[in-house]
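User: Please predict structures.

Assistant: First:
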Amino acid sequence: MQKYLQELFSNQQYNEKNFFLIAGPCVVESEELINEVADKVSTICKRLGIPYIFKSSYKKANRTSAGSFTGIGDEAALQLVKNVGEKFAIPTTSDIHSEREAAMAANYVDILQIPAFLCRQTELLIAAGETGKIVNVKKGQFLNGPSMKFAVEKINNTGNDKVGLIERGNTFGYQDLVVDYRNITWMKDIHVPVIMDCTHSLQQPNQSGGVTGGNPELIETIAKAAIATGADGLFIETHPNPAVAKSDGANMLRLDLLEPLLEKLVRLREAVI
């Protein structure tokens, strides 16, 4: 595994044979929420020996409806994410949407995440790479795995070799996504860590009501298949009560269901490694 991951997880019980986890609520709603989730997930991960990265978006720039919640303020939310990282001694990540945001967010988080719809934006990828931070790029819903080598190359050309790729399914019709697990193998051939987004891959976008739907009952299925096909990490958005979440509630995992799921996945990883 890449040396930068060993450094990233230096404060944790890092085991190359286990998968790592990126998890947290979709968006920073409040300090209380992100602390509750980080506390619970970090405790579970310590017990199971799973390296853990806390994730929560400081801003939701890609919303279907103009009335959807977008955030509590960029730097206010980023500061809360930074505080979580320091309080629980875990790395943090959040997504960015423009070149300007790359330098700003790099002051607060350890990993910059590039949203799927923006994975071909050359100037954004270059700006992220130039921060020197780890850059995780979500594969576009309109791309196959091999084509993501060009996104990796753009970041590498800045002198930054700390890149990961995230699989999140492909558009199927107008209101659904499907996961082609060949993409995990193909992206691993690019020689970067490959992460399966187990929640966004179950979204049902473009609903007539202006709020994205989802199939959270299939999160376990997606996660098990990802471990079986060699994913290095899993991305799971989780919330104590998804029904009242301000973003992506329809596809997040309820927080109390995370521990039994991770227990199953650790056993599966041991069986297939």
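Second:
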Amino acid sequence: MTPVLETVRLGKRYGRHHALVDVDLNVPSGRVTGLVGPNGAGKSTLLQLACGLTAPSSGTIRVLGAPPAAGPAHLARVGFVAQDAPVYADLSVADHLRLGARLNPGWDEALARRRLARSDLDPRHRAGRLSGGQRAQLALTVAAAKRPELLIFDEPAAALDPLARHAFLDHLLESVGELGAAAVLSSHALPDVARVCDHLIVLADGRVQLAGDVADLLAGHVLVTGRRRDLAGLPAGAEVITPVEPARDDTAGAPVAAPVTAVVRADRSLLAGGPWAVRDVGLEELVLAHLGRAAGATTPTSVEDHR
């Protein structure tokens, strides 16, 4: 099956700054892919390239089997919602639907009306008077009613309160399911990614640090707790990614010489019987470990450290 997004040695340079470097990706169809990484990692650049808003400096990128924005028909197959949920402040909600119908030959008016009702959006209200959550819902409605094969979201819920973010993600999943579309969601909020995404891409310093199905990535990593010298002697094929939780002496507040917990890339069976404890790794621990390694850090403690 053709990937919805495929890149080969993709690079993007702004002057002397390399936003993306030799990015090789195959984003599968039928999935909701989470795109995570610190600010400046290249996430927005990658999505802008995918939408045809900018051109690569090197390498290639194909979206739905063709160059990005290959023509009007190709543009209609991709829906895009940017971080600020761009809408026209002076137009009403109904005006947005009329404009969408005029610009998109595959426009699904019934779907748009269902989305409005589901979001409690009054067609008469001007977009400039909507709340941030309502604007995001309107932008999602317009993108989904094109009936695209790929939906691209660049931090669409970044400025929303928790309740509005929860509702937006619910509607995102409903729209993807109703359309049978693939989606790429760029987000700083790892709980959001864990909730809605089944494929993951981790970017840092313009390079891919980790990519794959979430279930496979979690199954291929474990948390290992043991003495530092034991972790240094893990079996061949086990790779320590980044220590994430050094044990501490509660009385002195200083690191103790013995146990440390680290994210390790390995099959659990490979570590059976060793002088260490093994447990499942969570998505946040996994992402922070790979981001920490990319940054040269040893003890990332929060997603906030990587914004």
